[in-house]
Amino acid sequence: MNTASGPRPLRIVFMGTPDFAVGSLRALLDAGNQVVGVITAPDRPAGRGRRMQHSAVKEFALERGLELLQPTNLKARDFLASLQALEADLQVVVAFRMLPREVWQMPKEGTFNLHASLLPQYRGAAPINWAIINGETKTGVTTFFIDEKIDTGTIILQEEEEIRPGDNAGSLHDRLKARGAELVVTTCRMISEGRVATTAQKESGELRTAPKLDKENCRVDWEAPMKGIHDQIRGLSPYPGAWCLFKNGDRQDSIKLFDTAMEPTDHELPVGTLLQEKDLLKVAVKGGFLHILHLQLSGKRRMEIREVLNGLNLESGACLR
């Protein structure tokens, strides 16, 4: 890395795809940085009509008139030539794909990534979700220089963020998006001024990971402790949503749960048993009941529980499993 004193303008290439990355790209531009190119995912079919959909970063880049590349293969010769032609001094990565060596070693100032955790904790694809699922009370954002492995490079800067009892993945995402954008701008300024001092990630102690979310790890295990289920549901809300099976009489459907409240108490009901008390819907768990506040029935939109109960006939033996 260049260690010369004094600020100098940097030619920056930005790489990112989802809305989380847009905050950092916007902040870089608003701070007066020169973004000479944006790399984002190819358009993909989405929705019932399977229409081609742009990434959030592409939409923003088009609005700002930025040079845009959407490679399918990051090792393709034509893409590498196009990237080289941008003559970037620095590459900034926020919520993108794993980069090959040919890409991250290209700029003279290197390539750094913004990760939504306090590395080395929660390396992986879904750090915001897993921090809440695992009941953490704090997380944060980290900038680090990319190396050969996933989220293992030397740390540049870190900022902590409290995880509040009422947080879900959506609210924490929004705060970390803003906090991360500030950290990206500060990191770029430090690099431009030649005053970056990095530290190696410490591998000691228990390291928790943040694997990609899938159908299996998003399913609720009603045998788990009450707090664990509550944290899983809020850690997967509003997207992709914790799910389970709803059995009511002869019918069984998949449903999604988005919001619950805990009622610690003693009971002798089998876990998963559903109870309706006026405008409340409760599910029996170990150590008490979870009040279900928002859910989505199969084929329906997300609804508040009062709206659900208005049209729901809960039969004896109804349960979640």
Describe what this molecule looks like in 3D.
This protein is an alpha/beta fold and 321 residues long. The protein has 2 domains: 11-192, Formyl transferase, N-terminal domain (Rossmann fold); 226-320, Methionyl-tRNA Fmet Formyltransferase, Chain A, domain 2, CATH 3.10.25. It is 25% helix and 30% strand. The protein contains 8 helices and 18 strands. Strands 5-2-1-6-7-9-10 form a 7-stranded mixed β-sheet, sandwiched between helices. Strands 12, 13, 14, 15, 16, 17 and 18 form a 7-stranded antiparallel β-sheet that branches. A hairpin with a 5-residue loop joins strand 16 (288-296) and strand 17. Helix 1 runs parallel beside helix 6 and helix 5 (127-133) packs antiparallel against helix 7. The N and C termini lie far apart (54 Å). The model has no long low-confidence stretch (mean pLDDT 95).
